[in-house]
Design brief:
230 residues; mainly beta; Porin; 11 strands
Length: 230
Amino acid sequence: MRHLPILLALFISVNVAKAQAQDSKFSIGFGGSYDVSNNEYTALYSIGFSSRLEYQDINQYSYGLQFNYLATEKLGVRVGMYYARKGYNLKYNWATYYPGYGGSVDPIVPIETEFQLDYLDLSVSAYYRVVDAKFYHLAPSVGIMNNILLDNREISTMSDGDTEENESDSNPSTYIPGFRLGLINDFDIGEHFFVSLEPYIYFQSKTIDESVVVSTDYTYGAYVSLNYKF
């Protein structure tokens, strides 16, 4: 049920897009991206028997639909609607400070906890084609990105290898607006289909969890999609 809002949004968007598809100026695509954030984390102090706590990045990704409309011969608009996994990892270094267990700790003690945050990413960008060859089109893009929190959870890995999933008591940002730059590379592979590769960089107004992530200078990735022209 946690993904129901995004599934409903995607269903509505697809049907609206079909209704508005008047000519080949409109296209719709599906794809995904591996995303990397340049995060700076808050300083951590020892707690209990822990000699060191350390925050780390987790693998972040996004996937979903994009809608493209070429308003003129060169100028167009791209709208994206993506499910995005964001978050961070907290590693505990218990054993180095407390060797009484022979270099290990009790099985019920976590050795790391991953804070997984699910967002709906909505982007709107304008692009302008600077290269318009027969089978290839290059267009810089500029626009906005809006991140809306859908769900958050904690997954802890225990010292015996087991994992436990719990509701998170963290306080992530529920809405994150930002500014987005991209470089769209479209490769035609037929009359109706084309592949789009869009490296991008995203500057957000605040972090995913301001109590943990002090700053995020930027996030970058490369969105790859298969698109259909009506």
